[in-house]
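Message: A physicist's question: would you kindly supply an amino acid chain plus C-alpha cells?
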Amino acid sequence: MEDTTDIKYTQFIEKVAATKLVWGLKSKTGWANTESAEDEEVGVVPFWSDRALAKISARDEWKSYVPTEVPLAIFLEDWCVGMAENETLIGINFDAKMLGTEAEPELVVFDILTRLKAINSAIKFTNYISIDEFITEISEEQ
C-alpha cells in the first residue's frame, strides 16, 4: 500500500499532466522557497497541482505570497531543468505546515512526461521537438 506522500506525489503528476498547469507562490520579492527537511544546505521550491492547495500554504512566512500559475512546458523546461542544474529540490503539494514530498527535478520531469505519453497528451516545448526527445535527454542526465 502506498503511503500518503506517494499518493500525493502520484496525484500531483496526474493532475499537472491533465491540466498542464503547476502552481507556485509568488510575492513582490520572488517565489516561495525553503530548505530541505533532510538537509538545510539544499533548497526546495514548492509547487502545487491546484491553486487551492497553493493558497492553503500562503500563510505565516508566506502570507504575502499569492498562488501563481506556471504553464507546464515552462515548468518542465525552465524551472525543473534550472533547479536540477542548481541542485534544488521540488516540494510537491506541500501542506499548510510546509510538509510534503521533496523530489529531484529530473524525476518529476520524467514522471510528468511519462504520464503525458500515457494519456496521449500533446505539449509544445521550446527546446525539445517531442516528449520522447525530452525523456531521452533527461534519462541520459540521470
